[in-house]
């Protein structure tokens, strides 16, 4: 391998490490933020003992999970019982590989783009990885040899399959408007024009609702409904195996929020600011830092929105969940796609 190839590989490995570490840190403090948001909405204090404002609470929770006894059910399939949460965690960390986090940094003579893989099938990659996420849940649920876990796994599989269809159709309208599957191209087009939340409000609403279902968040957390299934697919899990399932959910919530911000809210685009002129005045590196915090700020808003909804809306019944996906969102997504195609056709003629 040439020196250039070695430098390229090392750069990508460093980006992978930074992204995984950052995702884990955000997931850890999302647990703290969720309890603080819940406390605020319920007129309570929330975590306030471990560190100032309870900021060390995620570290205390992590130590607690690590120190708990590992229990594997006697009749469980031990290999698959371990593989389930590991697969859920790995797939959750893979989703963010195609997200453009900001514009390029300049370090010496080298230009570093903070995006692990700028592939030309970014949409398909996201949908493919999301569909893999359910395998970790299903494998863990089946391997537990517990009927409640299995029912939770079946619910998760049915739910994700049902809501992937309208989500995919919502993304097709973006493809029709941009002519590209690359997320970097989608962000670039929004920098020069309106954000797609303005041009595709129905598609955004469909994608947002489907994101709740894909991440198993309330009001679509039927796979782990405590009042029906004890704890759902992770009923038999303890210690860090359960921690992996919980962390995977919070990582999925963070990556999902970032994808929503990237596709519909301009990604790292700073609203009402000429990025080119700003870059010339403050330099490329400072602009890249501003772009990163802009995207992260948008993602944090949607993380808060996930939490706000959790403590506002009640859980759906399972038949209501399926009716919403198949009888409402899917026809609405098809109609939205047809209207988008008609508008594009009229505009081109």
TrEMBL record:
GO cellular component, one term: plasma membrane
Keywords from the named record: Cell membrane, Membrane, NAD, Oxidoreductase, Quinone, Translocase, Transmembrane, Transmembrane helix, Ubiquinone
Membrane-crossing segments per the record: 12-30, 79-101, 121-143, 163-181, 193-213, 244-266, 286-309, 329-347
GO biological process terms on file: aerobic respiration
Membrane topology: Multi-pass membrane protein
InterPro entries referenced in this protein's UniProt entry, alphabetically: NADH_UbQ_OxRdtase_su1/FPO, NADH_UbQ_OxRdtase_su1_CS
Compartments it resides in: Cell membrane; Membrane
A Pfam cross-reference name: NADHdh
EC number: 7.1.1.-
GO MF term set: NADH dehydrogenase activity; oxidoreductase activity, acting on NAD(P)H, quinone or similar compound as acceptor; quinone binding
Catalyzed reactions per annotation: a quinone + NADH + 5 H(+)(in) = a quinol + NAD(+) + 4 H(+)(out)
Quaternary structure, from the entry: NDH-1 is composed of 14 different subunits. Subunits NuoA, H, J, K, L, M, N constitute the membrane sector of the complex.
Homology family: Belongs to the complex I subunit 1 family.
Protein's job: NDH-1 shuttles electrons from NADH, via FMN and iron-sulfur (Fe-S) centers, to quinones in the respiratory chain. The immediate electron acceptor for the enzyme in this species is believed to be ubiquinone. Couples the redox reaction to proton translocation (for every two electrons transferred, four hydrogen ions are translocated across the cytoplasmic membrane), and thus conserves the redox energy in a proton gradient. This subunit may bind ubiquinone.
Stated name of the protein: NADH-quinone oxidoreductase subunit H
Lineage, highest ranks first: Bacteria, Pseudomonadati, Bacteroidota, Flavobacteriia, Flavobacteriales
Gene of this entry: nuoH
């Amino acid at each position: 391998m040439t020196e250039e190839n070695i430098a390229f590989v090392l750069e990508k490995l460093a980006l992978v490490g930074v992204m995984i570490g950052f995702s884990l840190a955000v997931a850890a403090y999302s647990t703290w933020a969720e309890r603080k948001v819940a406390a605020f909405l319920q007129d309570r204090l929330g975590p306030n003992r471990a560190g100032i404002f309870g900021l060390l609470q995620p570290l205390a929770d992590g130590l607690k999970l690590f120190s708990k006894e590992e229990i594997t059910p006697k009749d469980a399939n031990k290999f698959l019982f371990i593989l389930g949460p590991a697969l859920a965690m790995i797939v959750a960390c893979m989703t963010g590989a195609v997200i453009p986090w900001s514009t390029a940094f300049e370090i010496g003579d080298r230009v570093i783009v903070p995006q692990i893989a700028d592939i030309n099938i970014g949409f398909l990659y996201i949908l493919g990885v999301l569909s893999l996420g359910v395998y970790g849940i299903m494998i863990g649920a089946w391997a537990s040899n517990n009927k409640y876990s299995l029912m939770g796994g079946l619910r998760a599989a049915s739910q994700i399959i049902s809501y992937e269809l309208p989500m995919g159709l919502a993304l097709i309208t973006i493809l029709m408007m941009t002519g590209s599957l690359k997320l970097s191209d989608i962000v670039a087009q929004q920098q020069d024009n309106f954000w797609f939340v303005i041009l595709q409000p129905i598609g955004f609403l469909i994608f947002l609702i489907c994101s709740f279902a894909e991440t198993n968040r309330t009001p679509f957390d039927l796979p782990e409904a405590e009042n029906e299934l004890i704890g759902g697919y992770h009923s038999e899990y303890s210690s860090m195996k359960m921690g992996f399932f919980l962390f995977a959910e919070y990582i999925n919530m963070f990556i999902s929020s970032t994808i929503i911000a990237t596709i519909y809210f301009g990604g790292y685009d700073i609203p009402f600011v000429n990025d080119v002129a700003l870059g010339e005045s403050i330099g490329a590196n400072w602009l890249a830092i501003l772009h990163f915090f802009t995207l992260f700020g948008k993602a944090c808003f949607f993380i808060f929105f996930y939490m706000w909804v959790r403590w506002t809306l009640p859980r759906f019944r399972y038949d209501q969940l399926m009716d919403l996906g198949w009888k409402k969102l899917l026809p609405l997504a098809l109609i939205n796609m047809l209207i988008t195609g008609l508008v594009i056709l009229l505009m081109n003629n």
